[in-house]
Every structure is written in structure tokens, then in C-alpha cells.
Design a protein that fits this description.
Helix content: 55-70%
Oligomer: single chain
Number of strands: 0
Distance between the termini: 24 Å
Number of helices: 13
Structural class: mainly alpha
Amino acid sequence: MPTVIVMQVRTEDSKTGRVESLDVLRGLAVAGMIVVNNPGDWTAVYPQLLHAYWTGLTLADLVFPAFIFTMGAALPIAIAHRRAAGASTKDLYRHICVRVVVLVVFGLVLNAVSAAPQISPLRIPGVLQRIALAYLVAAIVVLHVRQARWLVVAAVLLVGHWALLTLVPFGGHAAGTISPDANLARFVDIRVFGRHALAIPIDPEGLLGTLTASASAVLGAAAGQLIGQTPAGAIGARTVAVGGAVMLTGGWLWSVALPVSKPLWTGSFALVTAGVTAIVLAGIYFVVDVRGLRRWSLPFAWLGANALGIYAGSEVARRLLDRPRAWLFWEVLEPIFRGRPENASLVMAIALLTVWIVVARFLADVPPSRVRTPE
């Protein structure tokens, strides 16, 4: 039998069932994606805005898992709202499947645009593809698993991923071999995708990491359910923050045996990033939804309300407007910041982010019937 989700959705817009703090956090994640992906010069970037090559954690590494966690947090609230509007389980699955297909197709289109004019072999994994699969898994859990067992499901996904990495031999390598050039995730992607996957050192959105990315979304769903069913007040924020601290501590302890690695999306990485995101969510929830201090958060709320469209648009523009961007950086910004190229790169990224905030502001004024906003 499907799980019955009962909660009081607290939001400024009762017609959409959205919780503003989730839009703000999702918008922060999208802003981070744009800044990280759009420096003026890739050879002059502050270290915290670059992904760790294999192990370790930078600010850039927090952005994508924060988005997936927030996507999961919005799921139980969105599903409860649809249930209240009369949607059946069949209706919900139709909606979920359409979203998954759209995300995968757009992900492949982005990969093609990024590789153009040579799109063969086309990369199959990608950011939107991973979002789609994590969304699908988390949605199934929210629909069919009792809330008290969501954390158990997340634990099974995390431990299962660890067991595969450490206990399964592959390609002549002993079980537990984990290095940039030899690991089970790389082996699986080569076998399944061949040249249709990245190798830097492995595809960061490969198949095996989907297990732990889905766990990130399920952990987010648990936080979202707590926010949705707890009476508005500091206690909800405090509970989410405590849960975040527990995940963060558990992840760092686990990292002694299983290093924090974004390319592999290890269990320790999933827990650490989920913990940090939960703590940030608790802070935003307290400030925006409990205290009502919203003015500072409006640009991020605009981005978050149209997150996937803004992200996809920024990625397409990054490829198609490469020459104008290069001219702006080298002819305008670089001379201004001569001797401080990292500052010029950062200003370029922030300038592009500002453009997309303006676009998001325009979309926020478009009637809801003309813009499909993501849960």
C-alpha cells in the first residue's frame, strides 16, 4: 500500500504548496553551479571554486549534492500537495515519469551542445541525468516506504555502495582497489558506456554513484518531511540542524575508512554534504519561514523557483556565447584586475550569475501556467 503522507504545508503560496526556504536553498545551489562553471579563465580560479580531483572537499563540491538534497526535501511536500488536490498514485507516477524523461532528454541535449560540433561519441551520463535518477528513486521511496524507514533506505543505499566498492573484485583487480585509475565505478562505466562517458579520472555522474546520490535525495526527503509536518517555529529548524550535525559527524568519521570523494560520490561524501546542507537549510528556514526575513533571499528564491531551466540555460549559453564571454573577460575585466587573475575570473562568474538572476526575476513574473517550476 502507498505511504499516506499527512502534513500541513506552510508556505507563502498555498496554491503551489511551495516552501520558500527550499526555493532559497535551491537557488543558492544553482547560483553556486553558475559561479563554479563560468570562470573567466580556468587557469586562474580560487581553489575553493574548483572540484577536488579525487578526494577531499571544496566549496564547489558542495553545490551539486546540495541541489539533490534540496530536491529530495521538496518531494514529500510536493506529493502531499498533489494528494490534497486529488491526485492518485497513477497520476503521481505519470508526473514523475514525465519529469524523469524530460530531464534525461535535456541532459543529453546539453551534452550534445557541449561537445558540438563533434558529438560522437555522445556522453550519456550527466548532471541532469543523475538528478533524474535520484529523483525517481527518492519519489518511489516517498510514495511506498513508511516515513520511519526512509533513513533505513538511505543507509542501505550508502552501505550497499560501500560494499560494492570495497568487496567486489573487478577486471583483474582485487576487491577494495580504489584509485583514480582503478576502481569499480570506472570499470562499470567503461563496460556500460565505453567512450560515451568521461574519464577525469572517472565520470563524476557515472552509474555506481547514482546509488549514493539517491541516498542524498532520500536524506533530503526526511528533512523536508520534518519541515512539512512540524508546526512553524524554531524547533523545526533546530531538529533539522541537529540531524545535519549528526550526518556531518558520521560522514567525517566514516571518511577515515572511506575517503570523501565527489567523483565516486562515496558514502562519506554523501553524509558530509547532506549534513552541511541540512544545517544551512535549518538556518534559512529559521530566518525566512520562521522569522519572516525574506528580502535578502529574493534573488535566490527567483533562481530556485526555476532552477533547472536556469541551470540548463546557463550551460547552453556557456557553450554558444563562448567568444563574447572571452572578449568580455580578456578585453575588459582582465586589464582591470591585472596581476589578480583570480579576481577577474570571479567577477566574470558573478556578472554572469547576475544576468541569470535578472532572467529568473522575469520568469517569476510570468503567470504560473506558463512556467513549470520544479519540485
